[in-house]
Amino acid sequence: MHSPKSAAFPSAAQAALLFLALFLCELVVGAALRDANGLLGLNGMQIGVLSAVLGNGCVFVVVMHFQKLTYRELFHRSPTSAGAMLMLVVPPVLLLVPALLLTITSALNLMMRVMPLSPWEESLFSRMADGSVAAVLAVCVMAPLLEEMLFRGIVLRGFLQRYSRWQAICMSALLFGAAHMNIYQFVVGFVMGVVLAWLYERTRSLIPCIALHATYNTATLLLGDWLSAASPQRMLWALLLATLAAACGALALRQMLVVPAARGTTP
Question: What is the pTM of this model?
């Protein structure tokens, strides 16, 4: 007989299969949209956005039906109200964005010097940052919402019931990085995945996770070129300001999310 812990969905293997199912759904929906594109008149990025929305929708409907999950339970399981989470937790969370952006961008620039982008990867990143409405919608709205629902709301939620705290956090971050299917976004996905998973584990809410994810992606689109071309002096000032903001945010989060847990209360 299985214990409740061993029976929690998903396991690591089930999470991998869930991602595969999502990939196949998006592939099938994308193929159908391309076949119907004579009537729809969509460009490649618009087809990608619709494929992601419809593919994720199919997977979420099936998973949530069999798990008997409501959207209220998926998005916010914390005893703290959603309004309090938005007003008290989200602002210090967003103070972490500049430091994350600088750290990850520096790591990626170093990686690209050692391992230059392939033509396919250059084309992919160019489409994601082309400034079109579809690209902005995909990167800044749909990706944060859908990825947080899947990787934190479903996968990490199950992992936290099956595995130890840091096992669940690291395994979900590895899966999140691998889901991006290239080494550069794997690094971004793993680092962000650890931060987002820790945040979800502390709050049991997708609200701060979606806010952090969306703000980071938006900052990458807006400031990516500036960071690449910035002078050493400007980079130094940016680093100092980012460090100060991150220190303030981390201190506030520690007081709200770490200290109460250490005392044995639920954050």
Answer: 0.89
